[in-house]
Amino acid sequence: METIKNQTVPIVRGDGVGPEVTASMMQVLDAAVEKAYAGSRSIRWMEVPAGGTAYEKFGTYLPEETIAAFRQYHIGIKGPLMTPVGGGIRSLNVALRQGLDLYVCLRPVRWFKGVASPVKHPEKVDMVVFRENTEDIYSGIEWESGSPEAARFYDFLSKEMGVNKVRFPETSAFGVKPVSKEGTERLVRAACRYALDHGRKTVTLVHKGNIMKFTEGGFKKWGYELAEREFGEEIASGRLTVNDCICDAFLQNALLYPERYSVVATMNLNGDYISDMLAAQVGGIGMAPGANINYTTGDAIFEATHGTAPDIAGKDLVNPSSNILSGVMLLEHIGWNEAAALVVKALEESFGEGCATVDLARLMEGGKPMGTKEFTSNICRRIYGTT
Ligand code: NAD
Questions:
Q1: Whose Cα sits closest to atom 16 in ligand 1?
Q2: Which of 225, 245, 263, 387 is geometrically suited to a Cys-Cys bond with 195, CB 3.0 to 4.6 A?
Q3: Does ligand 1 lie within 6 Å of residue 285's CB atom?
Q4: Handedness of CA 193, 194, 199, 200 (dihedral sign)
Q5: pLDDT at 95 (0 to 100)
Q6: Residues 217-251: pLDDT tens digits?
Q7: Is 312 in the pocket of ligand 1 (CB under 6 A)?
Q8: Residues carrying an active site annotation
Q9: Residue 316 Cα, ligand 1 centroid: separation in angstroms?
Q10: pLDDT at 3 over 80
């Protein structure tokens, strides 16, 4: 396969701490690519607008050119974006995910030695969560209590569907939870392929199908059927195991026996809770990377999972690791694994020696607190091998 020498990466700096974590991530990735390929490959960063700064300049939070750039280059990376208050767009992140139909929210969760954790054995946490991104109760199909729409919806439920289980119909709000066969299949397919490509043996379908029999139960049933149909050979030969777990049990087990789980495939709401709980087990919000991916078109947007942290913005305090690790996911996505490995090694070394931003260093034994810029230079030095 021909080596791509220059990879264009559209980039949204983001709001609040976004410009700081973005600058850090770019510096670290550039260093890793230079070190790994000695100048034969490079990243061309292409800044595209979104969020508060885009609104100030162009009067829109998400200019069409930004979506067009992500579509053209199939990848991109973004810092956190503020959620606009008031009318218009509900959430920029949701708008981006929907605009590109990025149906997988991918969240790898691992622990770095040295990082403080609330659990006894954080080293046993090594999971990759495939969270469905386009369906479920998250679809935004809901009506406010007391609205004419809620009344009309209840009318339909009671008169046409014979539903008489709503305890307080006058004051109930209603939400709809669509879960489809196609939506489930593309998510579970992506999870199984990922497991096989990355030498991970188990895919666990996490659901609440014992209670929500047709939606979450459907997810489980369609997931197993897809796995058997498309990965039957790998399952029969023992290369892949597909099992399932009820979500409440999973949340307990992931704390008690995290080593039992490797790739987790789940629906939108369960995935939201699971990703954040697992992130907390390995050091919290500044450490968890993420990506939103459409495995059919190949479109992927990588992002830090924390918000704009307005309380520390511009103070050189933010931990850029979440964005740096999202950059690592990007490098792996385009097959630049050597550069990705250099970044991971530098982070491992740094945390192992207690060198970290204040949020982590203050909880580490012998921690050496660093500002964002100092931490970034320290990672780059380790990549170049000059520390
Ligand atoms: P937040 O993640 O911005 O901050 C929560 C707390 O964690 C704050 O005390 C902050 O200082 C701290 N924190 C967050 N990231 C950190 C890091 N990397 N290093 C050190 N400390 C860090 O959540 P919030 O305050 O609820 O949200 C602020 C804004 O961000 C809102 O507008 C929200 O909608 C938006 N948001 C965006 C995204 C995204 O773009 N992916 C995600 C979540 C929230």
A1: 286
A2: 263
A3: yes
A4: negative
A5: 79
A6: 999 999 999 999 999 999 999 999 999 999 999 99
A7: yes
A8: 138, 208, 248, 272
A9: 15
A10: no
The pLDDT tens digits for 16-57 are 999 999 999 999 999 999 999 998 999 999 999 988 888 888
> pLDDT (tens digit, 9 = 90+) per residue, 155-183?
999 999 999 999 999 999 999 999 999 99
- Name 143's bridge partners: 174
Return the residue whose CA atom lies nearest to atom 1 of ligand 1.
307
Distance between CA 267 and CA 279 in Å, rounded?
18
